[in-house]
Write a structure and sequence with these properties.
The protein is of the alpha/beta class and 237 residues long. The chain has one domain: Aldolase class I (TIM Barrel), CATH 3.20.20.
Length: 237
């Protein structure tokens, strides 16, 4: 009996989506790296908390490629030196430029999160949670994931520090669960033991993985460079 056309079809693997973190202190240099990433068809994460002055009109006057606006407070591993109210205002102001995504932390006050959600327009909201010291046990990760899934965020992000190799497996196991629910997630581990999870994440269907152009411009421990990740991806594919 002949096989049907549908039976012959295979699910196409997701393409590697790399996002270049930009941790420059001036808008001019940050914009230059954004343009470089866009020319290479890469995403960019502009870390506004690193900037001496968040000159948004200079950074986002045109959007040559997909870009994430992030402004991390110190408690979330960021460099923001102003008040929390000022930080939130910067993120609200970003929405006027129509950026691709804005990253908002789960631990940010929930009323404000709902307000920025309502004002987002076409911008997608990334809801993030980080642990820079360890990886929680499965039960705690489940609770964190449940809290995030209960929100209207477009993309979830859970990133932890790998102290043991198996920590990577607990975090990576979140990806198929979230994907099966029809949602998107960024999930991997930081640190030397978490390096391989940054490649495994997109293989499992993670939305994207972060990779600087050079190791000196990494935004988190354990990041592989763009060229390293591309080379490993070609080898595995």
């Amino acid at each position: 009996m002949a096989r049907t056309a549908n039976s012959k079809q295979k699910k196409e693997p997701r393409a590697l989506r790399l996002c270049v973190p930009v941790v420059e202190t001036t808008a001019k240099r940050a914009r230059g790296l954004y343009l470089r990433a866009a020319r290479k068809h890469l995403w960019t994460e502009l870390r506004l908390d690193y900037l001496e002055k968040p000159e948004l009109s200079r950074l986002f006057r045109t959007l040559p490629g997909p870009v994430i606006a992030t402004c991390r407070p110190p408690a979330e591993g960021g460099k923001w030196a102003g008040s929390e109210e000022e930080r939130r205002q910067v993120l609200e102001n970003v929405l006027a430029f129509g950026v691709t995504c804005v990253d908002v932390e789960l631990l940010t006050e929930s009323t404000w999160r709902r307000r920025i959600w309502g004002r987002r327009g076409d911008t997608r909201l990334i809801l993030s949670w980080h642990d820079f010291a360890a990886t929680p046990e499965s039960r705690q990760l489940d609770d964190i994931l449940a809290a995030m899934m209960a929100t209207e965020a477009d993309i979830l992000k859970i990133v932890t520090w790998a102290r043991e190799p198996e920590d990577n497996l607990r975090v990576l196991s979140l990806i198929p669960r979230v994907r099966s629910a029809g949602r998107e997630i960024i999930a991997f581990c930081m640190g030397p033991l978490g390096k391989w999870s940054r490649l495994a994440s997109p293989l499992l269907g993670g939305f994207l993985t972060f990779a600087p152009f050079t190791k000196s411009r990494a935004s988190a421990p354990g990041q592989l460079t763009v060229n390293e990740l591309k080379r490993l991806w070609r080898t595995l594919r």
